[in-house]
Each structure stands twice: as C-alpha cells, then as structure tokens.
Amino acid sequence: MKLAQALILIGGPIALVAFGAKAQNPENQHQITYNGDVARIINENCVVCHREGGIGPMQFENYDQIRPWAPLISFKVANREMPPYAYDRGIGIQELKGDWRLAQEDINTIVAWVGQGAPLGDPDIVPPTPDLPDPDAWNFEPELGAPDLIVPSIPMDIPASGNDLWSKHYVPSTLAADRCIKAVQVKPRGDAKAVVHHANSYVEALNEEGEFERFGQLTEYAMGKWGELMPEGVCRTLPGGSRISWDIHMFPGGVGATAEGLMIKDNIVEIGLWFHEEDYVETEQPYKQDLRLYPMRSGYEGGHLIVPPNGYTMTQGFHSFDHPVRIDSFQPHGHLRMNAASLEIFYPETGRTEQISQISNWSATWHHSHIYAPDVAPLLPTGAILVIKQWYDNTANNPNNPDPDQWVYGGSRTGDEMSHAWIAITHLDEEGYEKIVAERKAVEQRSFAGSD
Fold first, then answer.
1. Is 80 left (phi over 0), alpha (psi -120 to 50) or beta?
2. Which of 227, 230, 369, 409 has its CA 20 to 30 A from that of 220?
3. If you write DSSP's letter for every residue of 174-229 in order, what string do you get?
C-alpha cells in the first residue's frame, strides 16, 4: 500500500503517528525526542531543501512544521527515498564525494522517534539553528569560494505548458588562456530548476585556420545534479579564446514535486567554473580527464529503444580502451520510465566481472553524478571492458510513469526514453597506472599491519 493511501485510510498524518506509537513503543524503550535527537538530523540533512524559499514542497524548520509530516518522513527515510540520493548500499564502491545518504543510525533514530509518537522532548532544549546557504548560491562556494568564471546562456522564456523546448546557441567563454578545471556546476536561475530538463555544454576552440571546431564536452547538467569535482593530478581543459555551445532542453510546466506550473520569463542557465592555478600543468604534469556520453546499444530494436506498454526493457553497452584508465564519476541517464542502472568491469584475461555501482531506485528528478573518492576510484587495465546496464519500467507500478499504455521509443522528448551514461575518465599510461596500483597496495598493507 502506498503511504498516501495509508494516510487517507487511517485518518491522516497524526493518526499514522499514533498507529506507529502503538505498534513500536514498548514501555522499556528509550524515549527519542525531537529536541534531543531528531532536530540535529533534520537540520543537517533536510532543511537545506525543506525551508521557506527552498525546493522542498513543505517546510521542516521547526517542530510544529515537522510534526504533521512525521510519518511521511519516517517512510521516506526508511525506504531511502530521502534525502534524494539513489545509490545502493552494500554493492560496489561506497566511498563517494557529495553523498547525501543518511547513516543507518540516523535512519533508525527517525523511525524509532515516529514509532514513539514523535514527541517534542524537553522544551528548554533549543536545537541549534542550521547554517543554511543561500538557495541560489553555488554548491561549491563554501569550500572553493565564488566561481572564477561564470558563463550564462542567453535568456529564454519557458511557458507554463506545451511541448518540449530546445535552445542551441553559442556564448563566448571570455577566457584568455588555457586553464585546468577544478570544479564545475551548472545552475538554472531561480524557478527554472523545475523546468530545465538538461543543459549540455560543449567547448569549441579555434583551429589553425582560425575557425571554431568541437574541442570536447565541458559538462552535463540534468535535473537535480550537484556538480562535478575533478581529482588532483588531472586536467579537464577549457581552452583560451573558446566558446561554449549550449544544448538546453526545457519541459514547460516542470517535472516532479517541485514543478512550478507557471510561465518563467528570461530564464538563464549558468555554468560556474573553478580553476587550478595558471601553472598547474607545469607543476603537476596532470593526466587528461574528459567527460563523455557512453551509449548503450544492446537491447535496442532497429537502433531505437522500445519499451512496450505495461512492460519492461533492459539495455546494456560495452566500452573498452587501448590504454589504462581510471573512472572518476558515473552518472546514468534516462527519463520517466528508467528505474535502475549499474556499472561493471569485465576483465577478459581472468573472466571475472566486478560490480562498481548499482542504483536500484533511480528517478529522473534527481540526476546524480556519483563521484568516486580518488583512492578507491576504479582502475581499468588496458583491454578491460566497461559494462553499463539500465532497466525500464513502463507499468503502473512505476510512480514516475505518466501513461503505462503507451509504446515508448528512444528520443529526446521528456516522454521518450534515453539509454546512456555520462562518465568522467582519467586517461593514464602504463607507468601512471602501475604507480597508482602500487600506492594503493602500500596503503592496504599499512592498514592491515595496523590492525594486528
């Protein structure tokens, strides 16, 4: 039974809290309170979105605001739907940057609190006020300061309803010399967060004939994406004198719980860029890193993804390299029927397959670039094969599905489907690969020796 149905059947949020208290509150259980235990968790993890002017559909800034929603909060955190970061535990690499997932201890605390009736606790205990960033601030600003360069799109009007819209145009970068990117974030301004489906950006640089030609991908944005951080020792280059090619997809009316349903005039999408020092290449001698779209073809019919009415589809793709590489981040991409994805590595010499990441509750309203911690980011020797899989649910059981009776084809519209992943890769040579392997082995041996 869905929670919304449960709320109606038993009389709303307060009734469900009472039901939970009756079922889960034995007399000898330690009492958990909002002031003493829960406020800290919510202030640190939830209020950033659930506040006045935030993107959350309700406010969680104090007990009176939270109390009616306590059972919904319990349901969402217990099912790991909130905070919105779909990445499976217990499978593959777990050390990620920008990981929003709650610790199991915090989940247990919230569930037990609601089971006890969601009590306030000692009124003399005043929970600390959360230190909240400006909702329009850049995500990396607390750590890195303001962006070194901001590249805006042209202004666009987005109607309250209608068909999908695209804007493809060029904007000069205003950068005089080549720089290595440290971090990058794409940010629609204001209310446009709910209507900008994706905003891809490419770099075009001047060739020897003085004409612009494609240099590579700058970054990719899809709804809910946090941003990208580049590890030390790599360079994703933005050439001096280049221009940015924008490819922006907008969905009038918006998608998901934060949809505005209003016309948004003069919307601008911005790229914020943080750079390494100007002599970074000379001093660090970094390896090249790039971000690319890696498509999946197996599972297609006639080159087009097809998900039958009230049915399911799986796609997979295979990619290998003629040199060793490191996978720095993984971001699966699809639309409303996609619901799961995985990344694996197949080693032909041994026949072994290693699962790197699994996302089993994927949602099109939160596209996350899963950034691996540098000391555990997967290494691929020459010839190893990336295996990317994605699954699609075109049934009524998929809460994001607008119409399970439709045939769904591959395409760029929100109602169509896509099957690819954005992957950031550092391109190594054999010497660099062996060096990283040796460094990791040394750390592992020291850790093992220290555990004796």
1. left
2. 409
3. ---S-EEEEEEEEEE-GGGGGTEEEEEEEEEEE-TTS-EEEEEEEEEEETT---EE
Name the phi and psi angles at 426, rounded to 5.
Answer: -95, 125
User: How is residue 368 written in tokens?
Assistant: 């996350």
Give the chain's domains with CATH numbers.
Answer: 3-115 (no CATH), 138-284 (2.60.120), 286-452 (2.60.120.230)
**What 3-state class would DSSP assign to 88?**
coil
Q: Is the peptide bond before 127 cis (omega within 30 degrees of 0)?
A: no
SS percent in the chain: helix, strand, coil, step 5? 20, 35, 45
What pLDDT digit, counting tens, does each position of 229-271 carry?
999 999 999 999 999 999 999 988 877 656 677 888 899 999 9
Q: State the pLDDT confidence band at 299, using cuts at 50, 70 and 90.
A: low
Longest dimension (CA), the chain: 81
For the stretch 325-383, pLDDT in tens is 999 999 999 999 999 999 999 999 999 999 999 999 999 889 999 999 999 999 999 99
